[in-house]
Amino acid sequence: MRKKLITGNWKMNTTSLTSKDLLTGLVSGLSDEILEKIEVVVCPPFTSLAAAGEIIKNKKIRIGAQNIHQKNEGAFTGEISAPMIKSLNCNYVILGHSERRQYFGETNHLINAKVKNALKNNIKPILCVGETLDERENNVHKKIVDEQVTLCLKDLTKDDMKNVIIAYEPVWAIGTGKTATPEQANDMHIAIREALENLFGKEAAESTRILYGGSMNDKNASELLAKPDIDGGLIGGASLKVESFINIIESAIK
Ligand code: PGA
User: Fold this and answer.
1) Can you give the pLDDT at residue 254?
2) Residues 149-173: what's their mean pLDDT?
3) 7 lines ligand 1 (CB under 6 A)
4) What is the DSSP string of 41-107?
5) What is the pLDDT of residue 233?
6) Residue 114 near residue 137 (C-beta atoms within 8 A)
7) Helix %, strand %, coil % for the chain, to 5?
8) Mean pLDDT to the nearest integer, 182-195
9) Is-above-0.90 flag for pTM?
10) From the CA of 246, how far away is ligand 1's center (Å)?
């Protein structure tokens, strides 16, 4: 049984002050009983990670970062490394988000180096994959996503896969209000699981969690999360409001 995972990607939103409010709201709105059933990870900006680590200290909510550098240290002005976030009790990191690919030129090769470095530092990567609208219209979406999965997970072992989470995020659905239908999403999740099976075998493929992301909100979450191959969500916009994020988490309990 794959435990459902709901992750909030706050992107470049919230200051040190507003992130505290948001997280405090989540902490008081989520009972231990809910957190027993659903794994919840929130990914604030780097500047709020230390404070976030304090707020969630005795809670089952976990925190993640939105990116790391592929090296542990060195002359890389402005960058943040895996050991830096690990020292803040941050055990997850979103990698390969389409915004990083699109605006910061991240390639599958670079993302692969980051995934390996996260694992080396005992941080669980949430690897994002997904096609653009153009790629879907040209019917190459499965090929593109298969390639992303294969290249980003290159050289990993079955054992490594116990700590890897995949997020399928069609680029055309991110921040657009246009969600993939539950069928479209589930279909892609099955294709991703097949790719994982080819790489790591059936057992690893069956136990890897694949999240859906792209305009998921408290109106469409329960339908998406009811699909057998959708193991949770990576939520941007709707994770910035306490009520809607909690509603999504609650709709994952079935
Ligand atoms: P969205 O973002 O929920 O605002 O579409 C999802 C994401 O980019 O992870």
Assistant:
1) 74
2) 98
3) no
4) EEE--GGGHHHHHHHTTTSS-EEEES---SSSSSS-TT---HHHHHTTT--EEEES-HHHHHHH---
5) 98
6) no
7) 50, 15, 35
8) 98
9) yes
10) 16
